[in-house]
Each structure stands twice: as structure tokens, then as C-alpha cells.
Design brief:
This protein is an alpha/beta fold and 547 residues long. It has 18 helices and 15 strands. The structure holds iron/sulfur cluster and FE4-S3 cluster. Catalyzes the reduction of hydroxylamine to form NH(3) and H(2)O.
Length: 547
């Protein structure tokens, strides 16, 4: 195996024996092979699309497959073997359609290779894995594009589950994936990287429309972080349609539902607040799950990443359920919903009834729900505070959290920021500072949480609105600094989206991606002012000195 797609890549180079995330080499190899087959499907369907015969079924095969290979989403060997088998069968059907349309089938190996067993699937990865691209810069750009596409695919899937889809986004996803099989000059690959960012904006806008049209606009909300006395289910991940189905089925059963990690923002949606079984948020960011799942006592539902494979001795092993693109060997997987129906969560609800209520680990409330609509309603006092100097600067600290010690930086950074600054956040990065007593500025909280990582889109919308209100030509003239924490590939698409929107001087930490070759990193530094982080004191000084 060789994998360097996330911030925890071993030694800052890549994982080769086992992932720091817990991914075993057999699963890593199967993921590489699945990606290879998805490239073949993308080549064929792009050909069909060009003659007006694109196959809509390809959309889901590709976005769901890409999503399953995201860091910490799916650790299930068998699930990948099944996916590869299905993908090969689907690819061969597409080949038939390409031939029937009178088109030539190319000679890329992803169009012709075939095998039937898990061992053969694994063996293939040696030829088609990341290192099969020998030019370091080309490899770096291609992987940057692929990771952006993985993030895009995840967001597209959530929107799709809410019946929001845009064929242009799927077409781009497949066109770009197909292009990664070609010998393209570096300039073209840079162009494709930036184009990926454009579609990143589009997919986040689509998901925002899907979420808000289904569940209303997030509103300022106090979320309970203590516990009640009922047995309960903990729901994690990002999929709001799963959240809806679970709440509907749990309501009135005596079983409560708590959110974990990236599901916290579900508490901000008016439609979800109506359910009396929604009891609040339990715990913190994903990487604390080993302790928090023990004390939760009830079953846990993963709708997406981030899963940490449990230790052998973990007591909660038989309380884990997965659904959608997520998977874990030994966990119970809840199948997809049938057309027009809800997913069937009865098993997890029955399981919860037999469990003790959660053990309290925290108490009190946290405040969130500042997506774009809510911020616009509060625009007047915010703009006023900027004009009077009560707010000197905003700090976008969106992105991911992770278990590396070096991430203590973000807590320290937030705590040390001057009191006339405001943090704008989204994603699980917020858990580093959303429980600190940072206070407010004339009633405006100093931590403004827009929601999940995809709600970084909301922060971009707010920035563009402020640019308009202040009559500026360039979004970079605003008093906003970007200090983003990344971990997995959704953060990659958020970053590319921000670059597409013209945002410059983004600081990225706790370390720069291992998949950026020195030359590609240089392009990002020279053209976009991308930089790393140093220490909180030095960085705060630097940010405050910047215009
Ligand atoms: Fe390593 Fe990250 Fe890949 Fe897991 S996802 S194998 S931690 S680089
Ligand atoms: Fe977090 Fe995994 Fe990225 Fe959605 S849940 S932000 S790390």
C-alpha cells in the first residue's frame, strides 16, 4: 500500500504498512483498484455524454465509490470487493453502450483489465496505485485533483440523497477523473485543479440549497451538551437525510438521539428542532470517539466519516452501525433506502432500548447556527462593529480536527486572539475552541459556527456579502484572515473552492499536505500565497499585521 491522502500520512510522506487512520494494507489496495475501475467508467461515460448518451446510473457508481475511499469512511474489506465487482460489471455494460454508439473503445488498462477475486483485486493495486505515476509533480497534481473530487463526491451524495443533483457536477467529476488517466502537461493539470475548485463551490451551493430547502435555514441555537436519563442513539457523520429518517423513527419510542462530531449542526435546523427526541450533542470531534463511545452506552450510527476502528477490547464494538458510503468490518450496515421510503433504523432503535442511558461527560450549552441566512439577519450590528472598530478582524478557522498533538496550536491560537477579533468556523475544527469562554463583542459571539465542513460555503457567501456592503473590489481587502485546519479530502475541496473564489494568503495546518510536491507547493505559494503555520504568538502577530 501507499497512501498519502490525509494530514496524518506517516512521517509526512505516506502510509506504507498500515494507515495511521487504521486502514489496513488490503483495504488500501482495494481502494486503489476501485479508483482505477472508476476511472475506466469515467472515460466511457464521458465518451457517451459527448454524443448525448451519458448513462445516469454512472453518477452514483462514481460518486459513491469515490466517497467510500475518503479517509476514515470505510474500512470494510468485503464491501470493497463487492464494490469492485459491481463496478467492473457496470463498466462492461458501458463498454457495450460505447460500442453500440459506434465509438471506439480506447486502450487504457482501466477499460480492459478484469478479474474476479479479492486477491486479484488487491494485487492489481501494485500496478495502478499512486506511485504508478512516476513524475512527482504530475502525480502530485493528479492526486490533488482526485482528492478534490472525493470531497466533491461526498457533498454531491448528501445533496443527491435530498433529491438535489446537477448533471454538470457529475459530468465534471467523471471528465476530470478520466483526464487523470491521460498524459497532460503540468499547466493543463493546474487548470483542471482550479476548475475542480469551481465545481467545489457549485456542489457546496447545491448541498446548501438541499439542506435548507428540506430543513429550513439554520438559526442561532443553544445546544445541550449534557445528558438526559433515557436510552439513546449517537449519530455521527454528515448526512442530514439519515438524521431525518432516524429522528422520525425514534420519536415517541422513548429513545433519545444525540449528535456527535460533524452531526452537531443538525441541532441548528428548525425542522430537526421539532423532534423532542433530539437531546443535544454528546462529546467532541471524531478522534475522541474511543473514550466517548464507551461512556455513551448506547448504539452509534455512522452516516459517513470519520470512523476510528475500535480497539480489540472496546466495549462498544457491537454497538456500531454504519450506513451509506461508510463501513467497518464487524459493524452492522444499514442498507440504502428504497425509492420513496425511509431507511429502516428499527434495529438500532430496538438495540438502544436495551442499553443504559448515556453517562454524562460534560454539561451546559454551546451556541451555533450562524449559516449565511442567519448572519445576514444580524448583518447590521456586525457591519457596525467593523465600522466602529469593535471588531478588528475575522479569522476563518474552518476545517477538520485531528488527533495530532500539534493541533493544540488551534486551541492556543483561539484563546490568544485579541478580544476584538471574531472566529468564523465550520467543520469539526471547531471542537478545539467552541467550548472556551471567549465571550462576545456587543452580543456577537466570538466564535461564529456556520455548521459542517461543507457550510464553509456559508462563510464564503458571508465574505462576498461583506465585500459588497463595504463596496470593495476584492474579497482579499476585507479584514478576514484564513487559518484553516485540514485533515481529509473534504477539506481539499473546500480549499480549492476558496482558491476559485479568489481568496489569497490561506494558512493551512497543522502541516502542509504530503501529496504536494515541492514544485506544486511552490505554485500554490507563489500564486495564492498559501502558507503553513508556525506558533500561535508569531502567527497572530503576522495575521494582524496583514492588511
Ligand atoms: Fe495514511 Fe491518511 Fe491514507 Fe489513512 S488516509 S492510510 S492515515 S494517508
Ligand atoms: Fe471532520 Fe472527519 Fe474533516 Fe467534515 S468529520 S470535517 S475530519
Amino acid at each position: 500500500m501507499f497512501c498519502y491522502q490525509c494530514q496524518e500520512a506517516a512521517k509526512g510522506i505516506g502510509c506504507t504498512i498500515k494507515g495511521a487512520c487504521g486502514k489496513t494494507s488490503d483495504v488500501a489496495n482495494l481502494q486503489d483498484t476501485l479508483l482505477f475501475v472508476l476511472k475506466g467508467i469515467s472515460i466511457l461515460n464521458t465518451q457517451l455524454k459527448e454524443v448525448g448518451q451519458g448513462d445516469k446510473a454512472a453518477n452514483k457508481v462514481v460518486f459513491d465509490g469515490l466517497f467510500a475511499t475518503i479517509t476514515n469512511a470505510n474500512f470494510d474489506h468485503t464491501a470493497f470487493v463487492i464494490r469492485i465487482k459491481k463496478a467492473l460489471k457496470f463498466r462492461d455494460e458501458l463498454k457495450g453502450k460505447v460500442a453500440a454508439a459506434g465509438l471506439l473503445i480506447g486502450d487504457h488498462d482501466s477499460l480492459h483489465w478484469t478479474a474476479a477475486s479479492g486477491e486479484e483485486f488487491e494485487a492489481k493495486s501494485k500496478e495502478v496505485g499512486i506511485l504508478s505515476e512516476v513524475n512527482e509533480d504530475v502525480r502530485s497534481l493528479k492526486e490533488l485533483i482526485i482528492y478534490g473530487l472525493k470531497g466533491l463526491a461526498a457533498y454531491a451524495e448528501h445533496a443527491y440523497n435530498l433529491k438535489h443533483e446537477k448533471q454538470e457536477i457529475f459530468d465534471f467529476m467523471m471528465e476530470a477523473l478520466a483526464k487523470t488517466t491521460q498524459d497532460l502537461p503540468v499547466n493543463e493539470l493546474i487548470g483542471l485543479t482550479l476548475e475542480t475548485g469551481k465545481f467545489g463551490v457549485d456542489v457546496m451551493a447545491l448541498l446548501d440549497a438541499a439542506n435548507t430547502s428540506a430543513y429550513g435555514n439554520p438559526e442561532v441555537s443553544k445546544v445541550n451538551i449534557g445528558v438526559r436519563n433515557n436510552p439513546a442513539i449517537l449519530i455521527s457523520g454528515h448526512d442530514l437525510r439519515d438524521m431525518e429518517d432516524l429522528l422520525k423513527q425514534a420519536e415517541g419510542t422513548g429513545v433519545d438521539v444525540y449528535t456527535h462530531s460533524e452531526m452537531l449542526p443538525a441541532n441548528y435546523y428548525p425542522e430537526f428542532k421539532k423532534y423532542s427526541c433530539l437531546a443535544g450533542n454528546y462529546g467532541n470531534a471524531w478522534w475522541k470517539q474511543k473514550e466517548e463511545f464507551e461512556s455513551f452506552n448506547g448504539p452509534i450510527l455512522f452516516t459517513t466519516n470519520c470512523i476510528v476502528p475500535p480497539m480489540e477490547k472496546a466495549t462498544y464494538k457491537d454497538r456500531i452501525y454504519t450506513t451509506g458510503a461508510s463501513g467497518l468490518t464487524g459493524a452492522i450496515h444499514i442498507p440504502d433506502r428504497k425509492e420513496g421510503e425511509m431507511k429502516d433504523f428499527s434495529a438500532i432503535i430496538e438495540h438502544a432500548k436495551k442499553c443504559a442511558a448515556p453517562t454524562q461527560i460534560e454539561e451546559g450549552e454551546i451556541v451555533g447556527g450562524f449559516a449565511h441566512n442567519q448572519v445576514f439577519e444580524l448583518a447590521e450590528p456586525i457591519v457596525e462593529a467593523v465600522k466602529t472598530g469593535a471588531i478588528r478582524k475575522f479569522f476563518v478557522m474552518a476545517g477538520c480536527d485531528g488527533r495530532m498533538m500539534s493541533r493544540d496550536y488551534y486551541e492556543e491560537f483561539a484563546a490568544k486572539l485579541p478580544k476584538d477579533t471574531v472566529i468564523l468556523t465550520a467543520g469539526c475544527a471547531k471542537y478545539r475552541y467552541n467550548k472556551l469562554p471567549l465571550g462576545d463583542i456587543g452580543g456577537i459571539p466570538r466564535v461564529i459556527d456556520a455548521g459542517q465542513c461543507n457550510d464553509s460555503y456559508s462563510l464564503a457567501v458571508v465574505a462576498l456579502k461583506l465585500k459588497e456592503i463595504f463596496g470593495l473590489d476584492d474579497v482579499n481587502e476585507l479584514p478576514i484572515a484564513y487559518n484553516i485546519a485540514w485533515y481529509e479530502q473534504k477539506a481539499v475541496i473546500v480549499l480549492l473552492a476558496l482558491l476559485h473564489l479568489g481568496v489569497k494568503n490561506i494558512h493551512l495546518g497543522p502541516t502542509l499536505p504530503a501529496f504536494l510536491s515541492p514544485n506544486v507547493a511552490k505554485v500554490l505559494v507563489e500564486n495564492f500565497g498559501i502558507a503553513g503555520i508556525t506558533n500561535p504568538d508569531k502567527d497572530i502577530k503576522l495575521f494582524l499585521e496583514e492588511a
